[in-house]
Amino acid sequence: MHCPFCRHPDSRVIDSRTSDDGLSIRRRRQCPECGGRFSTVETSSLTVVKRSGAVESFSRDKVVTGVRKACQGRPVTDDDLALLAQKVEDALRRTGLSTLETGDIGLAILGPLRELDEIAYLRFASVYQAFDSLEDFEAAIADLRADHHPAEG
Question: What are the start-end ranges of the E strands in 19-134?
Fold first, then answer.
C-alpha cells in the first residue's frame, strides 16, 4: 500500500480490527519513510460478468436502481430498497462464489422483492424472466395466490 503522504511503496500495519458487520477489516498503517499514519479498509470483492462479457464489481447501488423502476408508484421507501440490496448481497456472498453472472443477481433479487412488494415483484419478474404472454403473468399470480392461500390437505 503506497503512503498517501509521500508515496513510499510500503507501509506497516499497526492495528487491525473487524468492522461492525464483520464483512471488512479496518487497518491502521504507518509509513516507514515519513512516519505518516493512515487507515485502510479491506473487503472481499464480488465480481459480476455481464451478458456482454464485460466484468465489473458488484454494486448495491445498481441493484437499487434496477429495482426502483419496478417500485415506481408503490409504497416502497429508499430504506426498504437499501435493505433489499443488502439482502441480495448477503445471499450472493453466501454462495461462496467471488464471480457471478448478472442472471445470478436477478435470481437473488426475486425472493426479497417478492417479500417487499408483490406488484413490484411482478413488474421486475416480467422483465427479468421475459414474460411474453398473459399466461406467464397468470402463472406468476397463481404462485403468489398459492402462497397466500396454501392448499389445505
Answer: 24-30, 37-43, 47-49, 55-57, 99-101
Phi-psi region of 53 (alpha: psi -120 to 50; beta: other; left: phi over 0): left
**Mean model confidence pLDDT for the chain:** 90
Please spell the DSSP secondary structure of 116-143, one letter per residue.
H-HHHHHHHHHHHTT--SHHHHHHHHHH
Q: C-alpha grid cell for residue 99? A: 464471480
16: alpha, beta or left, given left = phi > 0 and alpha = psi -120 to 50? beta
Percent of residues, the chain, with pLDDT higher than 70: 95
Provide the whole-model pTM: 0.70
Burial of 119 (0-12, 13-18, 19+ CB in 10 A): middle
Percent of the chain beyond pLDDT 90? 67
